[in-house]
Amino acid sequence: MRISHEELNLYGVFMLKKIIIAVFALALSATASNAREHISIAGSSTVLPFATIIAETFGKDPSIKTPVVESGGSSVGKKGVCEGIGTKFIDIGNASSRMKAKELAFCDKNKVKLTEIKVGYDGIVVANSKKGKLLEISKADLGKALTAKIPMNGKWVDNPYKKWSDINPSLPDIEIRVYGPPTTSGTRASYAEMVNQKGYCAKDKDAKAASKARGDKKGKKCRAMRTDGAFIEAGEQDNLIVQKLQEDPNAYGIFGFSYLDQNSDTLQGAIISKTAPTFENIAGNNYSVSRALYFYVKHQHIGVIKGIDKYMDKWVANWGNDGILADAGMIPMPTAERAKYAKAMKELPVLTADMLKK
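RE: above sequence
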């Protein structure tokens, strides 16, 4: 029997389709065999202890592997969750500063879809050993102490202040030495914005005028931190800063409230603009150096990596006023906000640039 050219072509197409299907199936099989069995999370050192507490609650369920939670800083969490789809990329990024439009654009470039979940609030503290002098300082003077440049005689100059008392005679007569997080940290970004920029350059008469004169009306250039030794980058592990303060009574450190709360036997928090960093003041919105905490969950990994939905459920079960997270120092959201983000965990609205403007 003779087979026509048309029949041969049809047969060739049929076989090609079979080969493609077989290769695709083999790829899926290989992916499945290499799939992670645990949730992978990274990001903010401030969110780290709370995310770790939630992860540890999985230990009671033998059918789910305990999530692996790593630090690295908010920028690492936000960039890491946006880098791509697949088990070599993290599933959830933690952050103590909200995602920016340009960070979300990186997600869009990699076709990653996220939902933003706010989990609570935290205060940024300037703490020191109880053996040292308690710092009682205005937010403007605090910004003046650590911003890289200040205006003098109509010019911006490298920060000349060596001692706290050089800024204000009522402050301790000791060298300015403050340990804090690196540029990858959401804590540092939030601190620089709230204290250096908005507390000093947007409020101090001379700094405000000088900022406007150099085309920086909002004072954003004031966010740069000193690099002359007055401010010392101490990495993303806030526990290392705590250790430095316990060893050196004349040093101060910048970190999230929970680390002060957990070390209140040895450390004290500076009173900033007449307000102490307490749970009640932060929860009541009376402490001016506070911010929200977030995590960003990747849509494409939900249902592929086992337990992501249950991980989110654990947050809802424990983020109340009497929950284990509040006991660890996280400031709970109001009831209405908790309801809003519990709903978001179920409905998973895709984060868009317009949403970040609100």
